[in-house]
């Protein structure tokens, strides 16, 4: 997908976080790739946990190959002209270091590794990465092992019930950022809008109920088309589904083998506001791809 000629990059400074001794460096590789494609500055937090340092000091046979491979990968991108700053930190908390860093400098995107959790996890524990979705007005990309496929798909979830100027502007930001990510990955955009039939009256006839349902669906479809009109999307790339987003979004993402799901977060109204709480965490762990949570502009 090609960006419009007047399109301005949203990403001038990206923050990536990686643990140097892990064998799988998804956040590092994807942060380097996106920063190179977008020509942005990249700051990397190299997070070494005190526990690992203790194990290393007591076990001289610790495998140091991942560390050397990380250095080689970073050097390759530096040789291509990518501006990279590395900050070494000893900490057990990704979120604490990210929140501290974004207080010190201006960033447009944070990229961190995310490990999926068993559903039982949600009943007893809290993944610290979730706090990044809730607390700060900065876009967060949670990435895993799924490789970004060339000429693949990105699924962007928008909500059309709210017609306020503030929300319409936020939908535009979602679509602009989706357009840029799709261009950087050479992917296609698919839009998903979930809707509810809110007429719960017990007095309506079956005929009136059916007509009302069709009217609601038709209006949502028109709103979806209107939202997408400046982004050159075909009808086959627009998806209107009745139901709850925590059920629908993972299903559609799997159906189109999405490289990434893009959602809005930290709004106060609309079904996407659920991404601030427990529902969002359930959706994240149902996805088999990366997720980009975009925050409203301050």
Please bin the fraction of helical residues. Answer: 40-55%
What is the spatial order of strands in the main beta sheet? 3-2-1-4-5-10-9-6-7-8
Distance between the termini: 29 Å
Q: Which spans have pLDDT < 50 for at least 5 consecutive residues?
A: 52-63, 199-204, 268-279
Secondary structural class:
alpha/beta
**Count of strand segments:** 10
Gross geometry: elongated
| Average residue-wise pLDDT | 81
Query: Helix count?
Result: 10
Write the H/E string, N to C. EHEHHEHEHHEEHEHEHEHE
The Rg value, from CA coordinates, equals 21 Å
Organism: Shewanella nanhaiensis
Subcellular location: Cytoplasm
InterPro entries: UspA
Keywords: Cytoplasm
Explained architecture:
The protein is of the alpha/beta class and 298 residues long. The chain contains 10 helices and 10 strands. The protein has helices at 26-38, 50-58, 65-79, 94-104, 121-124, 130-135, 165-185, 206-228, 245-255, 278-286, and strands at residues 13-18, 41-48, 84-90, 109-113, 139-143, 153-157, 188-195, 238-242, 258-264, 290-294. Strands 3-2-1-4-5-10-9-6-7-8 form a 10-stranded mixed β-sheet, sandwiched between helices. Helix 8 (206-228) links the parallel strand 7 and strand 8. Helix 1 packs parallel to helix 3 (65-79) and helix 9 runs parallel beside helix 10. The longest helix has 23 residues, at 206-228. It is elongated. Residues 52-63, 199-204 and 268-279 have low confidence and may be disordered.
